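Query structure, 341 tokens:
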């Protein structure tokens, strides 16, 4: 169904940009991946860190609480999550926040979610809390912002470019759903962004992510707050990272539009804009410094269940520990920020 919609658009207007292809596949109101499929869990297509163990969300929650307290415990603030999935991460954050009732009292929770189906699931999951869904970051009341996003930015559409003897060209999706090269009118400032890149190398840009980061940056530098963004990728990687995952396996991104999850690595460096103080660590480093080992022992004692495997999945070098990175941003210089030395 979606294949026909896309092919029709290409026939009518010519090859489409990769960000357009991703947008249709992921967010088409009827047949898009997040609108129509069941992405999460063992039976779904992928398992995210908060779905592996509550330890992840609890330590992220403790980080947010620490930042709030260290920044003078503002009486009212927006606690925002981008792309909350099943609502597990926010549920874990709010549960651990019971140790700091003043934080809970001061928080107004906002969820940014495009899928109507997931909005319903999140509402049910977080039923006992007063939460609101927002359609954009500009929808929020003007107050300090504490924001979290796990595996959200990788889902935002990218464009791909390649530099060859003719200069920069864009990788477009052509008839039959295959890549072709073309020139487009509004080329971003690629020479400046990718100075010294070798000929033939593919690079990626993600305009929507930069725009969102600009809004976050403005808010935390003027009103206060902090952001923590977890995803796979690197600070300034290059190369083709466009991928499709279905039932825990890599598949051809053009094989079943809307049926597989489409993502690309996050280039964290482009989210860091003028004015913020950044912290950057691997997920393994961050969770270890936040005390995952102690947390695991407490939970094991309370439940009688071993949690070593879950911990290893979250921080192991060959599992999520290295491939996933944590970017934190705050507005004013601070002496010490946990998790980032
Ligand atoms: N954070 C969750 C889910 C990650 S999956 C977890 O860690 O388990 C990506 C999430 O982002 C989903 O909830 C998806 O519906 C949402 N999402 C993807 N693209 C979006 C967009 N453009 N706008 C708003 N939400 C989006």
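Result returned for the query:
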């Amino acid at each position: 169904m979606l294949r026909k919609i896309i092919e029709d658009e290409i026939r009518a207007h010519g090859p489409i940009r990769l960000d357009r292809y991703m947008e249709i596949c992921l967010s088409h109101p009827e047949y898009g991946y997040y609108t129509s499929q069941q992405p999460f869990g063992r039976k779904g297509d992928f398992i995210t860190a908060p779905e592996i163990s509550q330890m992840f969300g609890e330590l992220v929650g403790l980080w947010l609480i620490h930042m709030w307290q260290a920044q003078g415990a503002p009486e009212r603030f927006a606690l925002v999550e981008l792309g909350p999935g099943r609502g597990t991460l926010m549920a874990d954050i709010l549960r651990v926040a019971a140790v700091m009732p003043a934080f809970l009292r001061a928080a107004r929770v906002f969820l940014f979610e495009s899928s109507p189906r997931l909005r319903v699931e999140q509402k049910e999951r977080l039923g006992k809390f007063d939460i609101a869904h927002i359609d954009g970051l500009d929808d929020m009341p003007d107050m300090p912002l504490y924001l979290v996003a796990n595996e959200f930015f990788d889902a935002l559409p990218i464009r791909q470019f390649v530099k060859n003897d003719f200069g920069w060209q864009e990788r477009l999706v052509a008839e039959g759903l295959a890549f072709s090269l073309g020139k487009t009118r509004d080329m971003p400032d690629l020479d400046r962004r990718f100075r010294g890149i070798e000929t033939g190398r593919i690079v990626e840009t993600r305009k929507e992510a930069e725009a969102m980061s600009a809004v976050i940056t403005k808010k935390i530098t003027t009103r206060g707050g902090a952001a923590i963004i977890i995803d796979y990728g690197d600070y300034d990687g290059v190369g083709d990272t466009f991928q499709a995952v279905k039932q825990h396996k890599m598949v051809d991104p053009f094989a079943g539009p809307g049926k597989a999850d489409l993502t690309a690595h996050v280039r964290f460096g482009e989210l860091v804009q003028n004015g913020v103080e950044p912290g950057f660590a691997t997920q393994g480093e961050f969770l270890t410094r936040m005390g995952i080992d102690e947390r695991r022992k407490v939970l094991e004692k309370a439940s009688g269940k071993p949690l070593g495997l879950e911990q290893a999945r979250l921080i192991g070098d060959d599992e999520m520990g290295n491939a996933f990175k944590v970017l934190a941003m705050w507005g004013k210089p601070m002496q010490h920020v946990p998790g980032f030395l």
